[in-house]
Amino acid sequence: MSFRAAFGREPDGWWAAPGRVNLIGEHVDYAAGLCLPLALPQRTVVAAARRDDGRVRLRSATEPSGWEGPLDAIGPGTPAGWAGYAAGVLWALRGAGYPVPGIDLLVGDTVPPGAGLSSSAALECAVAVAVDDLAGLGLAGSDAGRTELAGACRRAENEVVGAPTGGMDQAAALRCTARHALLLDCRDGSAKQVPLDLAAEGLTLLVIDTRVRHNLVDGQYGQRRDAVEQAAAALGVATLRDAAPADVAQLRDPVLRRRAHHVVTEISRVGEAVTLLHRRQVRRIGPLLDASHASLRDDYEVSCPELDSAVTASRHAGALGARMTGGGFGGSAIAVVEADAAARIAAAVRVAAARAGHPEPALLHVVPSPGAARLQ
Ligand code: GLA
Fold first, then answer.
1. Which atom of ligand 1 lies at the shortest distance from residue 25's CA?
2. CA angle in degrees (0–180, nearest 5) for 243-176-299
3. Which end of the chain is more exposed for a tag (fewer CB within 10 A), N or C?
4. Same domain, 43 and 173
5. Of 194, 223, 240, which marks where a domain is finished?
């Protein structure tokens, strides 16, 4: 569907925002921890035009449903479905006091949905940079402004869509740069660019989309967040960022103890990974990725057989390290591999999936890519 076919006019421009994978630092953003995501070449593209009557019309080239209504009608729960992610950004920016105009907006190509690569954050952030441009807000021109946009995208997801996510994905889609991972400190929202030029080191990052989503466990994300908050309260700290492994060992409830153990050890693994990247010892991050996966599987219990199989198979075939990435319960794993071994490792992952009776995974070779921007 073209913009003209959808709305009977031409767009004012096109904007795009990337999906992400997280190199390490999983399920710690809502514990004020550290994470290290990178933006993907896969992007969600929107075409948009400003309207002066305060109305919003949303369409998608891939979804049959759309939404149309006044800006004032947007709020928690409205609109439902995919349009909530887009409209929610308008609502959040308005709520923050920005003059948001009406808009006609068509979603075109998207980050593969359901693959754990943050297609929802990519949609939010593409809308955010489009509105920023159309309203002349000027926020996308600085990291501080992009931080403000990321906050609005997160509020859209938390409050309009009702998903209690932690903010890493929106920060990644807006603040990542090419050839870098983003060291995001979720305590104060500050971020540093960490060089990650894998190709220059002869390495490749494989993304293994398991093509499964265990939707029956949707409420589990919120349960993990609750456990992390309960553990912090039991330890008398504001967040688990302020707790050490020795503190965590004193938690009496065995489930809370394992959840908290994951969080505090994962945060320290991020610190170790960043030190290695700064020393250009990328190959040595493999064992940290492996330890992260074991912790997510055993202590945090957010992996699944398809992810475990992808991780084990890539390691057996020679990956330097591998782990699930993102929220878990399906979605994608990542593996850092020697570039000349990538094809062999990808084949081994496919064979392992077939033997286990899992769906055939989709394999992507990715490079750290730029954040959301207007397309020229
Ligand atoms: C999802 C959420 C993020 C983060 C990850 C786990 O992607 O959207 O905020 O919590 O899970 O690290």
1. 12
2. 35
3. C
4. yes
5. 194
pLDDT tens for each residue of 12-60: 999 999 999 999 999 999 999 999 999 999 999 999 999 999 999 999 9
Count of domains for the chain: 2
Domain boundary among 194, 214, 236: 194
Same domain, 86 and 203: no
Please enumerate in sequence order all residues whose Cβ is within 8 A of that of 160, keeping only pairs 6 or more positions apart, or say none: 74, 75, 76, 77, 78, 84, 85, 87, 88, 91, 92
Q: Which of 29, 104, 132, 169 is catalytic?
A: 169
| Shared-domain flag, residues 102 and 139 | yes
Give the range of the structural domain holding residue 355, as residue numbers without chain letter: 199-366
Residues 114 and 260 in one domain: no
> Among residues 37, 28, 217, 36, which one has the least CA distance to residue 118?
37
Distance from Cα 102 to the centre of ligand 1, integer Å: 30
3-state secondary structure of 324: strand
How large a percentage of the chain has pLDDT more than 90? Answer: 97
CB distance 29 to ligand 1 below 6 Å = yes
Judge whether 226 counts as a catalytic residue.
no
Same domain, 243 and 303: yes
The reply to whether ligand 1 has any atom less than 6 angstroms from the CB of 327 is: yes
Q: H or E stretch including 169? A: helix 168-175
The verdict on 221 and 186 lying in the same domain is: no
Is 376 part of a structural domain of the chain? no
DSSP string, 225-274: HHHHHHHHHHHT-SSGGG--HHHHTT-SSHHHHHHHHHHHHHHHHHHHHH
Q: Is residue 372 part of a domain?
A: no
3-state secondary structure of 297: helix
Q: Which two tokens stand for residue 312?
A: 């084990």
Q: Is residue 209 domain-resident?
A: yes
Give per-residue pLDDT as tens, 230-242: 999 999 999 999 9
Instruction: Ligand 1, residue 35: give the atom nearest the CA.
Output: 12
Nearest residue CA, atom 8 of ligand 1?
165
For a mutational test of ligand 1's pocket, the pick from 21, 27, 323, i.e. the residue with the most ligand atoms closer than 8 A to its C-beta, is 27
